[in-house]
Task: structure prediction
Amino acid sequence: MATPSEKLAKSLEMLHGLQNANGAAAIRARDITRTHRERLLKHGFLQEVIKGWHIPSRPDEVKGESTAWYASFWRFAAVYLETRFRKNWSLSPEQSLSLHAGNWTVPRQLAVRSPKGRNNVTKLPHGTSLFELQASLPDLSDMAEKDGLRLFSLESALIETSPRYFVHHATDARAAMAMIRDASDLLARLLDGGHSTIAGRLAGAFRNSGRGALADHVRCGLCGARNRSIHRQALRHSRKVTHVCFPKVTQLI
Result:
């Protein structure tokens, strides 16, 4: 008959296999037997996050300590969301922009978009939560992936992010905008979506951050598009006027 130590070793072996499969985080209850799960919980090698989901932990961690949770947060989110929504989800434009900027601080509330979202909040450990918004996703060309997290691409995040973000998260906004080396892709998306107001805001933000050339590129590109549109309308109008107002030469003879 196996000793308690041998039983625990067997449970830890199973946990190790799950950690390798899931990147050391996000253990689904159904992926481990009840006997192993209860043994690991009892000895402090596993913590429950929400019903049916756990994360690995250290037995010497003080009860109520948040280290294991914050260390596992992003990987847990990636695995949990992929399981819930398959590939049909994305983090919000604002959260995407912060991650593009390299800010991996765990947010108080992680906002997620999915056509299958239920518009509700799931409470997570240590005062954190997950808000799933039922919303459409950008085109695949406007999405990116980072460490298993599905994000708005840098350019699409800049366009879709609310104006308040640039005020309350100025450091992240500046860092993200500093990653734009050439405004061509950004300008193409702005023109394609008819985002003239957003273009003006981003041009102002580029100029405010000391990147006047990019600001001019955005503004001039937008003005050029408007002028081309006006020119096309004028050309169509002039052709119409010529056709209506000017008789053929033979009629003048």
The first strand starts at residue 27 and ends at 28. The two ends are 118 Å apart (CA to CA). The chain has eleven helices and nine strands.
